[in-house]
Amino acid sequence: MRRIAVLSHIVLDEVHPSDVESVPHVEVGGAGAYAAVGSSLAGATGATVLVSGVGTADRQTLAAWCTARQIDPAGLFDVSEFSPRTVIDYFPDGERVETPAFGLAHFDAHTPLPRHIPFPPDAIGGVYLFHDHEPDYWSEVDAARRRFAAPFLWEISADSCRPAALPAVRERLELVDVLSLNRTEALGLFGAGRLDEALAELARLPVVTVLRLGAAGSLVIDGGDLTAIGVATGEVVDPTGGGNSYSGAFLADFAATGDPVAAVRVAAAAAATVIAQTGAPLVDDDARAHVRAAALSIPTERRPR
């Protein structure tokens, strides 16, 4: 079994609801945690390994969280006493502010790198990255790419989505096979005022690009092909982790099939499963069967560019 290695943070989110009468509570979160859930929903039992720095005080809790979602916790490695914790304050208008409880330096110290993957390169079927364009991080990725034949997916950080970063982003794209981003990030990256302007620029990139458009579905751009994919039906209870789970699911299916359109349908179904509840869902064979069935019902449309 070849594994999908998800390289990003698993954190503890201290959630403060906008309703002052509601009691704050702690949930497991982070881009890595949700991407791993998406990959697990799209893959097989234990085929996703989450690679992230954690705290010794939280390791057992976080490993159990992974196991309950059929994610291999072998990639969790000790960095400090406590894992990153994010304080999330919600406001009545739906906006929120996230603050690292122990500071950015502590958060950054728990960032996983390819050298932390606990399996040999030939055991890895795909690698998920969530990061900005920072040079030291990508020098590590550059060294790893020489050893891995598996596809790399970069879910780009919003911090890198500005025209000044575009030259560096183009350089980083030489090291990956898939770029995942949302509408706001695409517009920001190219300084575009309209989506069609951003699409024209994305079409020139030398990678498969998946563009997440929320309730409007998503687009996959693969060379000269542009395909629009709809959304899976269902209620949106909490959008947290929707984009991360989409990207993780896409990578798992794309690594298995090589078909980006089919992978986007699975990704959309997996994301819909995640946002249909508060917190990340448990994962088992029934959940996977539901995702596969939902994916088949999602419409696709080939579009001219």
Furnish the topology, listing elements before pairings.
Layout: E1 3-7, E2 11-16, E3 25-29, H1 31-42, E4 48-55, H2 59-67, E5 71-72, E6 76-80, E7 85-90, E8 96-100, H3 104-109, E9 124-131, H4 135-145, E10 152-156, H5 166-173, E11 178-182, H6 183-190, H7 195-202, E12 208-212, E13 218-222, E14 225-229, H8 242-257, H9 260-275, H10 285-296, E15 300-303
Parallel strand pairs: 1-4, 1-9, 2-7, 4-5, 4-6, 9-10, 10-11, 11-12
Antiparallel strand pairs: 2-3, 7-8, 12-13, 13-14, 14-15
Helix pairs in contact: 1-8, 1-9, 6-7, 8-9, 9-10
Structural class: alpha/beta
Order of helices and strands: EEEHEHEEEEHEHEHEHHEEEHHHE
Fraction of residues in helix = 25-40%
- Taken together, the total number of domains comes to 1
Give the overall shape.
globular
CATH superfamily: Ribokinase
Fraction in beta strands: 25-35%
Give me the count of strands.
15
Descriptive labels:
PfkB_dom; 305 residues; UDP-N-acetylmuramoyl-L-alanine:D-glutamate ligase; Ribokinase-like; four-stranded mixed β-sheet; kinase; alpha/beta
Structural summary, described in words:
This protein is α/β, with parallel strands linked by helices and about 300 residues long. The chain has one domain (about 5-305): Ribokinase (UDP-N-acetylmuramoyl-L-alanine:D-glutamate ligase, 3-Layer(aba) Sandwich), CATH 3.40.1190.20. It contains ten helices and 15 strands. Helix 1 (about 30-40) crosses helix 9 (about 260-275), helix 8 packs antiparallel against helix 9 and helix 9 crosses helix 10 (about 285-295). The chain starts with a strand and ends with a strand. The model has no long low-confidence stretch (mean pLDDT about 95). GO terms for molecular function: kinase activity. It comes from Herbiconiux sp. A18JL235.
